[in-house]
Amino acid sequence: MTACIVGWAHGKFGKREGMDLESLIAEVATDAIKDAGLEPKDVDEIYVGHFGGGFVKQDFPASLVLQASDAFRFKPATRVENACATGSAAVYQGLTSIAAKKSRVVLVVGVEKMTETPGEQIGGILMKASYVKEEDRPGMSFAGIFGHIAQLYFQRYGDQSDAMARIAAKNHRNGAVNPYAQMQKDLGYEFCRTVSDKNPLVAGPLRRTDCSLVSDGAAALVLADIDTALTLKKAVAFRAAEQVNDYLPMSRRDIIQFEGCAQAWQRAFARSRTTLDDLGVVETHDCFTIAELIQYEAMGLTPKGQGARAILEGWTEKDGKLPVNPSGGLKSKGHPIGATGVSMHIMAAMQVTGSAGPMQVKNPRLAGVFNMGGAAVANYVSILEPLRA
User: Fold this and answer.
1) 84 is catalytic
2) Out of 84, 192, 261, 287, which one is annotated catalytic?
3) Does residue 294 surpass a pLDDT of 70?
C-alpha cells in the first residue's frame, strides 16, 4: 500500500452538447483537488486517460489540464492509453509515480468526447482496439465481437438471454438513482428481455439493452502518498492494484474464459491477502451484458458456465451477497472510454467511504474494481479500503 485516493470529482456522462474536451477536463480537474482539501500548486504530476482514436480533432490532451488553473503550468502532464482500460491505466501510472517517490500528489483525469463523431464512424474507431489483421472485417464492430463471444458461450453452456436481460435490468435499475449516469431510467426486465422495435437485436444474440452507451464525460481523482493522505480529510487505500495483459488476437485464446481477467483477480486477492468473500461491492466492466456474466465466473463468484446463477438467484443485486455495479455500470452510466476506469474507482471509493448516496450498499468494508481494455486483453483489478472516511 503506497498511495490513497484522497479526492475526486465526477461530471455527468451522456451527450454533453456545448462541452469540448477542454471544458470536460476543466469541469472536474480543479474540483477533484478542492475535494481533497488541496490546491493546484500541491500537485506534482498529472496523468490524463484519453483513448482518442479520432473521436475529436483535438488530440494531445495532456496539457489541456493546464487550462483549468495557471498553477498547473510547468508540471509534468502525460497522456495514457490502453483501450477501454485507459482510465485505470492512468490511475496506475499515478500509483507507480508515488511508489517510486517521484511524486507525493498526482492528479488523474479520464476524459472522452465521443458523440460529435457520426455513428457510422464510431464503430470503426473502436475497432482499432481489436486485432485488426483478423477481427476488423467489413461491417464488424465491438458489438459484433461480443455478439460472437455470446454465441460461443451459448454454444458451450446454453442460451443465457434471460440472465443477460436480468443483468441489463439490474444495472438500469441501479443507474436510475445515479446522478452521473447517462440513462437514469429503470427499463424493467420485460423490456430488456423482449426483442422489439425499441430493443432490437444488434449483433448475434445481443439486444440494444445488452450494449453500453456512446458517451461524453470526464472524471478526476487525486492520489497521495500515505503520509500526505493521513493529513487529509479522507483517504481510500489500494490494498491491491494488478494489471494483466493477454494476447490481442482472440484466435490465440479460449475467449469465453476471460483468462486475463481471472489472473488479475487472483493476483489482486493474493496481493491484498483477501478473498472474494471479503468484498462488499464490485464495480465491473459491463461493456456488454455477456461480459459481466463471464466476469462473475472469472472473479470466482461461480464455477465456469454457471455465471447465470449469480444474477438469477439475486447474488449481485444491490441487496445481494455481492452487489455488482450499484452505480449502474457502463450499461447505464455510459462508457466514455478514457473516463470509465477513473469513474469506476471513484464509484468504489464512494461506496467504502459511505458517500454513495442513493447508490450506497450496506457497509462495504472492501470494494473491487475490474476494468478491461479490448476483449479481456488489458485487465485491471483494484481492491480498495477506507484508510480515512
Assistant:
1) yes
2) 84
3) yes
- Please indicate whether residue 287 is annotated as part of the active site: no
Nearest to 241 by CA among 74, 82, 96, 38: 96
- pLDDT at site 389: 58
What angle (nearest 5°) sits at the alpha carbon of residue 328, between those of residues 323 and 331? 120
pLDDT of residue 12: 98
| CB within 8 Å of 162: residues ≥ 6 apart | 193, 308, 312
Contact of 49 with 89, CB cutoff 8 Å: yes
Distance between CA atoms of residues 389 and 387, nearest Å? 7
Strands 45-49 and 77-80: parallel
Residue type for position 377? V
In the set 148, 172, 285, 335, the catalytic residue is 335
**The one-letter amino acid at 348:** A
CATH of span 3-118+214-229: 3.40.47.10
Q: Cα–Cα distances in Å, from 14 out to 179, 330, 331, 336?
A: 11, 11, 12, 8
